Amino acid sequence: MTDIPLNDQELSLLREIDTPTICNALEIVSPERRARGFTVRHLHCAFPALAPMVGYARTARVRAATPPSAGNEDQTAARVAYYRYIDEAPGPTVMVIEDIDTPPGFGSWWGEVHSNVHRALGALGVVTSGSVRDLDMIAEGFQLLSGSVGPSHAWVQLVDCGGEVNVHGMVTNSGDLIHADRHGDPGAHTHTHAGPDGHSVANPDAASHCHAYTPAGPTAGRGHKRNTARVRWQSDDRRRDGHRQHRRKRLARGIRCAHRYRDHVRR
Q: Among residues 215, 207, 247, which one has the least CA distance to residue 233?
């Protein structure tokens, strides 16, 4: 079972706050995260006027410097699986893509086609250590925070998706809650701060947690194991409700702290 995602109102409140302010608030409510969970190098922000991206991470790794070793059929199957992965709940999503070439950005995974495909699948934008291109033809409202800008896609290919990635020092896992704007990209489960053009923050408390309980089969002792399984499920429901209430209280406290900090700075 997965943790309950934020509702539309909570996501909307987070979009009203810039990423550096989110980082300031997180330092208050989660001081242990002061030195992790954010980008530590410059990211190019293609569209500084867009509102912050707030969504759940979809992770992948790409490369472009060498031709793919897999055949066309295998590449197509991997691409289809990747698109299905992006379309999974919860949403909205933010792509967090690690380019594993040395140096990163040899060829771009992002341009006119992929921005439109990912936008149609519910993605708000991307945070990547790689490059982007086709800046005049990007899908409307799709944000690009990238390590570089380049003209070619070269041999760009998908390496894998759904695993842990590292984008400019921000370690992100699939399902992490991302807050990112022109200041940078704080990735999943933590806060991320990039250079003057972009900031990103990821919150690990939004990650999915799986709980599996298997009720006893018909050969089990009379009622005992079935009752035990039922009690465990009920306890799990109460624990999830408690976690949800605790998370909402922390979120509300963080937002209040962020607003107070912003008002103090403006004065």
A: 215
Q: Residue 113 domain-assigned?
A: yes
Give me the amino acid identity at 102.
T
Burial of 240 per CB tally in 10 Å (0-12, 13-18, 19+): middle
**CATH code assigned at 176:** 3.50.30.40
Q: What is the C-alpha separation between 212 and 201, in angstroms, rounded?
A: 30
CA 191 to CA 175: how far, in whole Å?
14
In this structure, how many other beta carbons lie within 10 angstroms of the beta carbon of residue 174?
Answer: 21
Give the mean model confidence (pLDDT) for residues 245-251.
Answer: 64
The predicted pLDDT at position 118 comes to: 97
Query: Is 239 inside any structural domain?
Result: no
For residue range 45-62, list pLDDT tens digits in order. Answer: 999 999 999 999 999 999
The answer to whether 182 and 48 are in contact (CB under 8 A) is yes
Q: What is the pTM of this model?
A: 0.72
Whether 265 is covered by a domain: the verdict is no
Ranking 96-100, 125-129, 137-141, 200-204 by mean pLDDT, the lowest is 200-204
DSSP, collapsed to helix, strand or coil, labels residue 213 as coil
Alpha carbons within 13 A on the beta-carbon side of 70 = 13
Report the Cα 136 to chain-centroid distance in Å. 25
- Tally of structural domains, the chain: 1
Nearest CA among 189, 191, 248 for reference residue 17 = 191
Is 243 buried (19+), middle (13-18) or exposed (0-12) by CB count in 10 A?
Answer: middle
Average pLDDT estimate for 238-245: 60
SS3 content of the chain, % helix, strand, coil (to 5): 35, 25, 40
Distance of alpha carbon 267 from alpha carbon 263, whole angstroms:
6
Residue 119 lies in a domain: yes
pLDDT at 231: 39
